Please model this.
Amino acid sequence: MKPYVLIAEDEKAVSELLLYNLRKEDYDVGIAGDGEETLIMIDERTPDLLLLDWMLPKVSGIEICRRVRTTGVNPNLPIIMLTARGEESDRIRGLDTGADDYVTKPFSTTELMARVRAVLRRIRPGLKEDRITVGDIEIDRVAHRVTRKGEDIHLGPTEFRLLDYFMQHPGRVFSREQLLDTVWGSDVYVEARTVDVHVGRLRKALRNSGGDDPIRTVRSAGYALRED
Amino acid sequence: MKPYVLIAEDEKAVSELLLYNLRKEDYDVGIAGDGEETLIMIDERTPDLLLLDWMLPKVSGIEICRRVRTTGVNPNLPIIMLTARGEESDRIRGLDTGADDYVTKPFSTTELMARVRAVLRRIRPGLKEDRITVGDIEIDRVAHRVTRKGEDIHLGPTEFRLLDYFMQHPGRVFSREQLLDTVWGSDVYVEARTVDVHVGRLRKALRNSGGDDPIRTVRSAGYALRED
DNA sequence: CGGAATTGTGACGTTACTGTCACATAACTG
DNA sequence: CAGTTATGTGACAGTAACGTCACAATTCCG
Model:
């Protein structure tokens, strides 16, 4: 199951940047805009990680941190503090209140994501990342494995990437050119018709494990994965 | 019992400053001056926390970090990296290698102490076991012994580490580069194809004790251990 | 130091994947 | 319905990846 990361952040721009990047790394994400909301959302579903702004309306980040540590459902809930302040006294206060890590705004997203991975790896060692299920098809991007109705399906590298891409955007139609750009790479030149052949191979492989064709041909537009 | 903190730091001034402050906060403290010494001291008495300089003579800090994570007596040993470098790429590399936290020199002792408290306060769930079983294969990391269906299997050091790493992440595919980084070490250069040969040897050894090939080749991606 | 064990690497045969063509089939259009 | 356009698919040849072997280099150990 995907790790659930809760963002408690007042600034819209920051929280949406985080949302975007966390989703890209395949986490479940929730956003709380102020302190009260944060406490409620933690109660509703215990996050695996809390990205917590120091300054939050209504209830401050540091107060939330303290409450989680002393009274929360999961007192060990990993917390990464976000703050605009850089003064040392505050940093120490943040860590001593029980935050596991501390990032100063403006932060680099790449670095923050690395910290997120570091914290989550600690909490859930051997975490199964990156699994997507659409209908009866499941793709495990880490194990590089595809199953349909539990049955294993062998795909070549290109077919795998193709399916992977479709499954990241179920229902959406992609032109042959788009698929070539993203699945093949923008720097190689191959005929557009090649996509047809590989879609055909992918279909064949998926058909072998029962069920009907999950790929929809959209005439004069491209292909899409059925949402189901 | 007092927590035992091991300092691995080349600079005398820094390590003595740390020693002084850690003792003041009532920790047991050990000091290792270079990489080799660090590895020996970890063997002698497993620390509760390692303060690890990035640049160490003989064996680099990052290499020690990696070894602790992949082959150490306690792969979950908390590590705080100390470094003079501040470049982002290094910071990320440090975190991704498995460091729990990261402090840039010159650091404030008060802040570092706060981080030490933060790390030690944290409870580490799911300590890595001495023994792992995947399918009919069992690996005993303490006794350095591998069995399949009860039968003993002799593996060379590299094959052992390779299998160990696979078994820590069953099902997950690793590229040759990843395997070289983690199993061989980030500082040695060997051909990627070397992995093939060792995987071949591992396969052969495992096949000898009956059963079929537990290692899955993922074309153009790498290798993985079958989960079973 | 010398033999044994372990590890690295070039060579080579084999397999699997890929892109393209040619033609068959299906879908649109008027 | 016939012509046109778009799509499906088998065949094939070129290529890259793979597994294994043989041997070289290195390390280990007495």
